[in-house]
Amino acid sequence: MDAVNTLIQTRMASKHAPRIPEVTAHLVGAGGKRLRPMLTLAAAQLCGYEGDHHIKLAATVEFIHTATLLHDDVVDESGQRRGRPTANLLWDNKSSVLVGDYLFSRSFQLMVETGSLRVLDILANASATIAEGEVLQMTAASNLATDEAVYLQVVRGKTAALFSAATEVGGVIAEAPAEQVKALFDYGDALGIAFQIADDLLDYQGDSATTGKNVGDDFRERKLTLPVIKAVAQATDDERAFWTRTIEKGQQQEGDLEQALALMAKYATLEATRQDALLWAETATQALAPLPDHPIRQMLHDLAEYVVSRLH
Amino acid sequence: MDAVNTLIQTRMASKHAPRIPEVTAHLVGAGGKRLRPMLTLAAAQLCGYEGDHHIKLAATVEFIHTATLLHDDVVDESGQRRGRPTANLLWDNKSSVLVGDYLFSRSFQLMVETGSLRVLDILANASATIAEGEVLQMTAASNLATDEAVYLQVVRGKTAALFSAATEVGGVIAEAPAEQVKALFDYGDALGIAFQIADDLLDYQGDSATTGKNVGDDFRERKLTLPVIKAVAQATDDERAFWTRTIEKGQQQEGDLEQALALMAKYATLEATRQDALLWAETATQALAPLPDHPIRQMLHDLAEYVVSRLH
Known about the structure:
2 copies of one chain form a homodimer.
Chain A: H1 2-11, H2 19-29, H3 35-46, H4 53-76, E1 80-81, E2 84-85, H5 87-90, H6 93-113, H7 117-140, H8 148-173, H9 178-205, H10 208-211, H11 217-220, H12 226-233, H13 237-248, H14 256-266, H15 269-287, H16 295-309
Antiparallel strand pairs in A: 1-2
Helix pairs in contact in A: 1-4, 2-6, 3-4, 3-8, 3-16, 4-6, 4-8, 7-8, 8-9, 9-15, 12-14, 12-15, 15-16
């Protein structure tokens, strides 16, 4: 990870446009969990890789992630990310859009350097899935017709696509057998879904000191996530009118968040959502079976449990 | 070009997110000149290419171009493009950012399909140069210290990088000799610079019916382009104070555009800018020398002259 961090520092520099490292350093400096690059390194090493292209791929994956965060904050008009003001607030939307584009291009350069067309294919497809998922989320977010199937599709796009690409390219660069590459993909896919469901659940039950977000941000931003989708699916006519007003029409008033939480409690949707997250974490650990018996496999196993351990 | 257009239509579709083709169709439907994909086709055919990867590359180049237009309009807060309302006005900034990302990912998929790492390398580098140029423009645009060298760097980034990549990949896919590939790059680079200088000049002397822009948009948006940079370089103290107020501080009032035009007339900077554009067009035509004697070479020659023929 030290080598990855050094590469990230080097490649995010720009001779001509000092605004670029300023913005990126703010975000990278905020110290995300670096979960995605770690997955790439782990996957490559688990499959016995001995070269150094996995470091480039890990940095690639983190650059793609950072670029999407920058663009997300513009799209969400967010003011806070990882407990700090967002780049679009500190600089402006322009900087977030353009620096995001720059990081995406840099990621692209890095992956070309690995010389692996298969890796390029996987990451190009993941990028398209991510972008498509973001657009889908934008149009589906406040639409009460959004059901669990659409939610899953959005989650696969916005989160799981990069997780599964991160693990898959680790296996591909190590020239692992097809069965292992598929196992790595399946693990990343399920881990990403568990991770995102946990994130959406914590929006309603986390405390802002830990998550860096305020309880109910998704409700205020009129985002239909799993806890609400499950409540909408069981809603009485009156309750449906409540969701239509607050989410679809965005006419929110004092006490609405409390009412929303009461409806989620009525149908125990937070607990049902937690069960879904646990199930996806279990799917992730089971996917690891075809992979070599190795301390890293155990670490990936523990990671899947950790991702949902924050839930209660 | 028909095959390119068909491919563009097919690839801009999205099963899951209908907003994507909506936004893209608006822009693609507005009928840009399709200059960049045409350059790729021309370069490949001029070098005797007989496969069909040049069609994918031409669509790639147009997707990159369209993606940057979508993001530019967010950054510039533009209301009009090609004489029609911009996507960010018709939908919202979110759609422009995310659909731009989607098109960029799609372009990336298309170029991976050609299986040429050299092509990928060229386009990855061009993408990074474009993004860097955009950031540089954002920070340099209203800074009176911006001189002709910085302007040229911005122009290379925002315009010429994609022109030169468009012509270069045409030669590369045709496996043309190094000397011809270099000639194609040099031609695209000089053509792109001539094109952008002409565009910046027409902002001050074009009529909006032809250009789809209003005279003086760049002045109002406080963009330092060549006609102004040349006037600032020769400014008296009083004139410098005028440029500082109107461009750097953005405190514009009634009559300022007329005053700016008067200062450009005083130093004949529009004519000097036109001469620069003509010189770059001439550089472009001269770059063609090492290429095969072929009707397409003549067409590229005529194109360079055409780009500056709008100037008077």
